[in-house]
Specification:
Helix content is 39%, strand content 25%. With 212 residues, it is α/β, with parallel strands linked by helices. It has a seven-stranded mixed sheet with strand order 3-2-1-4-5-7-6, sandwiched between helices. The structure holds S-adenosylmethionine. The site of S-adenosylmethionine has 17 residues, from helix 1 and strand 2.
Length: 212
């Protein structure tokens, strides 16, 4: 609820902000698109203002774009309409609340959102459940665990209390890697970007024999 309020309040500002590293953003789009096929169904949780979903929509059959913030979604719906995109369904809530059927998606996207999740491992497990065997999980996650910025955890609770910062969870890239592997993914692409390489982009494949 607190998180939802923060993102509702931030939505307009977020929509106006520039992508901080255009080269990395374009690389993420094109690497993701190299895995897409016209008959695929995608789920994106934490879709924000929908920019990425709008980029990918022409390359797939359908995208379910999910976010806890109604204000983010309302901007996203506007962007899709303006771009003439009609194969994205926007739904408010978390991935668990969305309640997708088992093995119903070819690709799941979770971009700039995993470090904001209080229940990160449950969400990763949910991604495994809803992906088809061999399906792809594309994520981009801020990993502050090995950076000097990890001390943000000392001020984050106050920033959060004042509504100036979202909940941020400090994790190490190696932790994320092992959580993904334990959940049943094999990591096919992994590279860093952002100042000091604090963000990690991953393309992980659900192993075919994986049971959830
Ligand atoms: C930093 S923004 C990233 C938005 C977009 N993915 C991007 O890369 O620009 C984080 C988004 O995740 C959403 N969010 C935060 N916690 C969430 C959760 N538990 N489930 C779904 N969305 C969530 C926020 O409302 C916000 O729109």
């Amino acid at each position: 609820m607190k998180s939802e309020k923060f993102w509702d309040k931030t939505a307009q500002r977020y929509a106006k902000s520039q992508v901080s590293d255009q080269a990395a953003y374009q690389k993420k789009l094109s690497e993701t698109q190299s895995f897409l096929q016209p008959d695929m169904r995608i789920a994106e949780f934490g879709c924000g203002t929908g920019t990425t979903a709008v980029h990918h929509a022409p390359h797939v059959q359908h995208i379910d774009a999910i976010d806890i913030s109604e204000n983010m979604l309302s901007i996203a719906r506007g962007k899709a309409k303006e771009a003439g995109i009609d194969n994205i369904t926007f739904t408010r809530g978390t991935l668990a609340e969305f309640g997708a059927q088992d093995e119903s998606f070819d690709v799941v996207l979770g971009l700039n959102v995993i470090h904001l999740l209080p229940d990160r491992q449950a969400v990763i497990t949910e991604v495994v459940r809803i992906l088809k065997p061999g399906g792809i999980f594309v994520s981009s996650t801020v990993c502050l665990g090995n950076s000097a910025l990890r001390y943000i955890k000392l001020i984050a609770p106050m920033g959060n209390l004042l509504g100036l910062m979202p909940d941020i969870f400090i994790l190490k890239e190696a932790e994320l890697e092992s959580e993904m592997t334990r959940a049943g993914f094999s990591i096919e692409r992994q590279w860093n970007h952002g100042k000091g390489g604090i963000a990690v982009f991953m393309v992980a494949r659900k192993q075919c024999a994986q049971r959830h």
